Amino acid sequence: MNLKKAFTENDSIRLGLSASTWQEAVKLSVAPLIESGAITEEYYHAIIESTEEYGPYYVLMPGMAMPHARPEAGVKRDAFSLVTLTEPVTFSDGKEVSVLLALAATSSDIHTSVAIPQIVALFELENAIERLVACKTSEEVLAMVEESKNSPYLEGLDLES
């Protein structure tokens, strides 16, 4: 599961979008994955339900969320999407988010061992949130993903598959 490959194959980078609620922002973040067939509509509803029950557990750092649910909730294949918002949305815990990186993983192992290190590598880049929000093209985002490949978090990972 390769971040760059998943973005390209699913045509799943959407920049400069607008959402008035966190639910709408989550919907925007999973829409490219529904369109590409990586997930079903059920996956969106599972994210909303678990957020309402457990809170926004996927807000990983100030400005960034990684909406996801269990693999059995409609994941057809491993995929990522990335959405930036022109204005941040506020989650129920008061945290504001302007970058959403949706994750669809067919297993918990992929989620933990392959997906998370790539996401950490991307978001540990200096000013990652601001830089991603400033991106105007998918190519600019993909260049940041490429830049993140030198991260120690990715040592020993096979990202070609």
From TrEMBL:
Span of domain PTS EIIA type-2: 6-148
Name of the featured protein = Ascorbate-specific PTS system EIIA component
Looking up InterPro entries in the UniProt record yields: Ascorbate-PTS_EIIA_comp, PTrfase/Anion_transptr, PTS_EIIA_type-2_dom
What keywords are assigned to this protein?
Cytoplasm, Kinase, Phosphoprotein, Phosphotransferase system, Pyruvate, Transferase, Transport
Annotated GO molecular function terms are: kinase activity
Which Pfam families does the UniProt entry name for this protein?
PTS_EIIA_2
Q: Where found, per UniProt?
A: Cytoplasm
Q: Which SUPFAM superfamilies match?
A: Phoshotransferase/anion transport protein
For biological process, the GO terms are: phosphoenolpyruvate-dependent sugar phosphotransferase system
User: In the UniProt record, does the keyword Transcription occur?
Assistant: no
> GO cellular-component terms in the record?
cytoplasm
The record's function comment reads: The phosphoenolpyruvate-dependent sugar phosphotransferase system (sugar PTS), a major carbohydrate active transport system, catalyzes the phosphorylation of incoming sugar substrates concomitantly with their translocation across the cell membrane. The enzyme II UlaABC PTS system is involved in ascorbate transport.
